[in-house]
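Reading a protein record of the kind used here takes only a little practice. The record below shows the convention in full:
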Amino acid sequence: MYVCLHGHLKGSQGKRTLNVFSSRPLNDFNEIASHFIDCICVHLYNTRIRTSVPNQQSMNNSLPINPTRGHQAAPPSQFSGQHNNGQKSVEDMILDILHLPSNRAKEEGVSRDLIAQHLGIPLDKLMLSIKKLIEEGAIYEAVTDHYKSIING
């Protein structure tokens, strides 16, 4: 049985630890091939950055994380996160709320009621978007009905 894990890998004093935010069984084995293709893309992207900036003394390893894919610095799609009319998706608006500095500081996360009130959308529509973000590994439930982005975790 294969599983898909979303988390944060940390290294300290020669030891590596993985803080897992979500785990789910792998149903579609095309995800394995997709993962390898993503790894190749990220590797090529990172090596091209390093070779295209020869005057910089050292590159910082903490490249921006693309929360919708859960890996480092893949070139974004020109349409990602937007509907045809140019407005942000509900998922992107939820992430924007979770990324606010006042909300990043909250250890318990942001309540779903507060998010729904801020966005002015029904709770059932909000929960569908939250479920999608959790499945993608972009957010996690910190405490009951309170959510945090993996970027602020």
Remarks:
- The chain has five helices and seven strands.
- The domain at 1-153 is CATH 1.10.10.10 (Arc Repressor Mutant, subunit A).
- The chain has one domain: 1-153.
